[in-house]
TrEMBL record:
Listed GO MF terms: 4 iron, 4 sulfur cluster binding; class I DNA-(apurinic or apyrimidinic site) endonuclease activity; DNA binding; DNA N-glycosylase activity; metal ion binding
SMART domains given in the database record: ENDO3c (SM00478)
EC number(s) reported in the record: 4.2.99.18
InterPro entries per UniProt: DNA_glycosylase, Endonuclease-III-like_CS2, Endonuclease3_FeS-loop_motif, Endouclease-III_FeS-bd_BS, HhH-GPD_domain, HhH_base_excis_C, HhH_motif, Nth
Keyword DNA-binding found: yes
Record's protein name: Endonuclease III
Cofactor note: Binds 1 [4Fe-4S] cluster.
Family from the record: Belongs to the Nth/MutY family.
Gene: nth
Major enzyme class: lyase
Amino acid sequence: MLSKAKTMEAIDLIASMYPDAECELVHKNPFELLTAVILSAQTTDVSVNKVTPYLFEKFPTPQALAEGELTEIEEVIKTIGLYRNKAKHIKGCSQKLVAEFAGEVPKTIKELVSLPGVGKKTANVVVSTAFGVPAIAVDTHVERVSKRLRIVKQSANVTEVEETLMKKIPKERWSKTHHQLIFFGRYHCTARKPKCEACPLLYMCAEGQKNL
DNA sequence: AACTCGGGGCA
DNA sequence: TGCCCAGAGTT
């Protein structure tokens, strides 16, 4: 596993590649962001951005979405994939927001994860983006990149990846680094055919040396 | 731990 | 055309 210093060397290089990386969802308030992040599972933010304007025009509040007809919600979001599950999730999520959180989006990970459709990754994105809480949301990109660079051990699960990253990266950089790791994983250190030959981290990447 | 949901993007 | 994907729930 990479030392703390070597890890930051890698993080700095990635940061220099994507200095402006940020959440690409056109989120506004916490409710809209939360709903949009639930919809973004296994889908690109670009796809989600295509349906959310109409979704929130039709269901502007947790109350409205909680009372929305499932078939109507499905109709609006059907172009993003997994839409039946997601329609159920965002409706159920809004119902719980209304019933147990006074229609407000809760601010703790524990409460967020208790909502339908909200897992660890979604909860972290919400507290980070909506409430400015330092967080590292571990998705497949973050996990893959962290493992290839040996920032975390190969056998690490999502929780272990998150803990290791938080330990090695200064807290004030968690949120920004999270987006930069995602951009790096999505556009450069891709799951298939990573661009190792054009990677500034090649010199310190065991996985990359193998790929050449 | 494996299976399911799913249309869009890309080779 | 075929394959994968910014996850989470269920079994």
